[in-house]
Structure formats: C-alpha cells, structure tokens
Amino acid sequence: MKFRTTLILLIVFVGLLCFVLFFQPKKEKKESSEKLTDFSSTDIVRISLKREEESLEFKKDEQGEWWLKAPLEAKADNYEVNRLAEELASLRIDRIVDKEGGDPAKYEIPKKEISFWLKDKNEPVKILVGMENPLDNTLFAQKEGDPRIVLLSSYFRTMLEKKAADFRQRDIFKFETSEAKKIKLKAKDIQWIAQKREDEWFLEEPVEALAKKYRIEDVLNTLSNMRAKEFVVEEKQALDLEKYGLSRADYEVSVNLPAKNQEITFYLQKKDDKVYATTSASPKIISVEEYVLTDLEKKVEDLREKQVASFYTWEAHKVEVKKGNMVINASKNKENKWQVVGEKGEADSSKIESFIRKMESLEASEFIDQPGELKNYGLDPPEMTVTIWVKGSDEKEKEYQYLIGKEDQEKKKVTVKNPRLNYLFIVDSSFLNEVPKEAKDWLVQEEKKEDQKKEKEGK
After folding, report:
1. Domain regions of the chain by residue span
2. Closest Cα partner for 431 from 356, 324, 378?
3. Cβ within 8 Å of residue 42, ≥6 positions away
4. pLDDT per residue over 93-151, tens digit each?
C-alpha cells in the first residue's frame, strides 16, 4: 500500500516538473521583461535588509560613499553595495504567480524585508520576500502596494544571503602610495630604509644606493592594497596585540606621508597558520593572505638598481664618446635620422643604436660601495667618457654619463662610474668591442652601401 502511494506521488511530481520545464518557459518569455521596480540605482541613498539571522543597513554619505550602519558601523565596499542597489532598482520578474495577490502567508511572505530609500523621498520602497521555490531556487516576493505575488531570480536570492563581512571594505589600510616619501622595513633578518628624491627611490640603510623604483612601489602597493580575509578585532587593546603576536611583530613597516603630516606603521605577524595585521592608524586587527609576507621579504640585493643608468634607447637623440684626444658626436636631425658630427657620409644608425643599447643594458655583476680614490680604478681621469642625451614623452632632456676605467682583460671586467652616484659598478667589458675607434666607424661603409644598392636593384 505504501509502495503504491509513493508511486502515485512520484508520477504527480514528474508531471508537475514536466509542466514547469516545457510549458512555463513560454509564459516566462512573455513576462521576463516585466519589472517589479524601475528606478535609477544612483538615486538610492539608503538600504535596509531585515532577516532572521542578521539585519543589515547601508547609508550613502555626501561624497557618494557607502557605509555599513548595522550590525556595526564600518566603511562598506562601494562595488558590492552598488551591485545590490542596481539589483534593487531594476528587479526583474521571473514569473507572476498570482496577479490578485491571494494569501501572502501561503508563500511565507514576509520572511525577509528589504527596503530602499530614494533621494528626496521620505517613504521607502519595500520588497517583501518569502520562501524559496524548490523547483528552481527562485524566491516568492511581493512589492508593498502591489498586489501581485511574483518569483524573483535565484541571483537575487544569492545577494540576499550575503553577510555583513561580504559588504565591508576589505582594503581598510589603504593610503596614497604616490604620497609616500620614506619607508622603513624590518622583517626577520631583513632591515632597510628607502627615501624618495624627486621621482627616484634611494636606499639609505644598510647601503646608500639607487633602488629599483618598481620594487619599492611593489612593497607600498602590497601594504596599501592588503585585504582583510577576516575582521578579527574591531577595537584593539593591549591584550589583543599580545594575543595575536602584534606587540612584538616579526614584520614592521613604517611609511612616511609628508603631504598628510602622517607616518603609518604596519605590524604583521604569522601565528597559528594565520597572518594577522594592524596599523598605528587603525583600531582593527585583521587576518590577511600569507603572500603579503612574501611580498615584504625583499632583500637589499633585490631592491638595488643594477643598471648603471636607466633610460630607453629609442628616446636617445644625442651621444658623445670621449677617449683621450678623440671626441665622437652623433645626433638625430629633424627627420629623426642619425648624423655623425663633422662627417659628410651617411650615418650607420644600426651601429649607433646598437652601441647605445649596450650602454643602456650595462648592469653590475658587483658593486664597490666605498671606492676610495678613483685613480685606483683608472677613473681619475677615466679611460673613456660616454654621454647620452634622451628626451622622453614630456620632451624634457636628460643627460646620462658613464665614466669608464681600465679593463681587467683577464676577468673581462671593467669598472664604471655614474657621476650621480657615490659607488662604482663592475660590469662585463664586452661592450667595449662596440666603441668606435674613429668617427668614420659610425658611417655606412662602402661594402654596406653596395649591398644596399644591390638589394634595391633586386626589388
């Protein structure tokens, strides 16, 4: 008897399912363009979501920024709240269940209540949400003042299930990295200090040297964009710092922001397989991704700029080579073609640019940080001086100079000095093979002219 009853119920369920799958979509196509609400999301200034487990409230400030007001007060993630506002402003009806309304309690309406206020309006728009439709995860709902009972999409259900933490701004330690002028980092066995001068970063400790700009900026961006995985403590106390190991943190980074007359110190500590973080400017303790520590563990040798001079070959417009009494100059004319000064022949652009490229790519295999007397390295006077002038997109001319010492022919190394810096570079000496012995070396040779002539005739 029980088996027969079960079989009958199964047949009824299959019939209903077939009806929903094969007949209802036709009706849905007809009604899918209907909306329960039709407003501009930018006009929404307040949102309230009442539900059994946790109620949420959001409010937009005068600057257009969203704030979480309940269950706690905190800066909200503008992107997430704006998505919710956009959904509420234009709620599409999946299907109309009952045009006359009937009994809302039959659909457990109101199980949740979501209200939103439009600017210059005192009364909110209320959406009363009921039970979930077990067939397709849509939600039964009714707009206050509208008798219809409708089904809303399962996507809307997902939005309603989000917790307060999902709507919170997670990069709570954010600052303007471009305003940073000094950074001090202590991370286990790593300690360094870097200072910004105009548009360049220089290491000050443990060595005075030009730093790789992008490396320092990577550290600053890591700190500024740290996102909370979890909000651990809202209002930290000394006991909280002790509990999470932040009173004597292994990672401590101070960032100086002169424009705001502010210095922010970041404290990070790994404890119990989690990484905890706080700052001197925030009452909060959060947990963050472990990769943050890896980004901070930059050794001095990783930060230090190895290039003797940093520029782009294609921006060079003038070059000078001085060796003893020999001086060779080449520059670009108005047509952007190279010319060798004092020579009538055609300049060999490929040779000139190849030489400049070699100079651009010169990198230290090692440094001499306290060189003492320069004559010990063949630099007083230098064996050779190379000067390159470049113009960037801003059309400002910059000059880069290389003072080149005596070559160590056995080691195939040569010492080079950038006059801007108080230390020396030891580099591979292979670039010396491309140094012209006379101005004519930068001219197109007769053989090459013949080859070019034959190539044109062949075409």
Report:
1. 32-167, 177-303, 313-445
2. 356
3. none
4. 999 999 988 889 999 999 999 999 999 899 999 999 999 988 888 999 999 999 999 99
For 278-290, write each residue's pLDDT tens digit: 999 999 999 999 9
- Work out whether strand 149-152 and strand 139-143 pair parallel, antiparallel, or are unpaired: antiparallel
Residue range 72-84, pLDDT digits in tens:
999 999 999 999 9
Conformational region of residue 263, where left means phi above 0, alpha means psi within -120 to 50, and beta covers everything else: beta
Q: Which two tokens stand for residue 153?
A: 């999409």
> Are the beta carbons of 386 and 319 closer than 8 angstroms?
yes
Contact 416, 424 (CB under 8 A): yes
Tokens of 40: 């501009």
Q: Kindly report, residue by residue over 405-419, the tens digit of the pLDDT.
A: 999 999 999 999 999
Cα 168 from Cα 454, distance rounded (Å): 71
Q: Say yes or no: do domains 177-303 and 313-445 share a fold.
A: yes
The CATH-assigned architecture of domain 177-303 is Sandwich (2.60)
* Helix (H/G/I), strand (E/B), else coil: 323: strand
> Is residue 75 within 8 Å of residue 65, measured between CB atoms?
yes
CA triple 347-352-356, angle to 5 deg: 160
- Count the alpha carbons within 13 Å of 455 in the hemisphere toward its beta carbon: 6
d(CA 62, CA 81): 16
Report the mean per-residue pLDDT for the chain. Answer: 90
pLDDT over 80 (residue 448): no
Q: In angstroms, how far is CA 439 from the centroid of its own chain?
A: 48
Q: What is the pTM of this model?
A: 0.77
CATH fold group of domain 313-445: Immunoglobulin-like (2.60.40)
Please provide the size of the chain in residues.
Answer: 459
- pLDDT given for residue 28 in this prediction: 40
What is the pLDDT, as a whole number, of residue 130? Answer: 93
The answer to whether 95 and 135 have CB atoms below 8 angstroms apart is no
Reading the block at residue 453, the tokens are 């002539």
From CA 187, how far away is CA 254, in angstroms rounded? 12
pLDDT-derived band of residue 458, with 50, 70 and 90 as boundaries?
low
Which runs of consecutive H residues, i.e. helices, occur in 162-210?
Answer: 164-167
Considering only CA atoms, give the Rg of the chain: 35
Query: Which tokens is 140 given?
Result: 């039964």
Strand order in the sheet with 413-417: 338-340, 326-332, 316-323, 384-391, 397-408, 413-417, 424-428, 366-368
Among candidate residues 187, 453, 424, 227, the one with its CA nearest the CA of residue 306: 424
- Identify the three-state secondary structure at position 186: strand
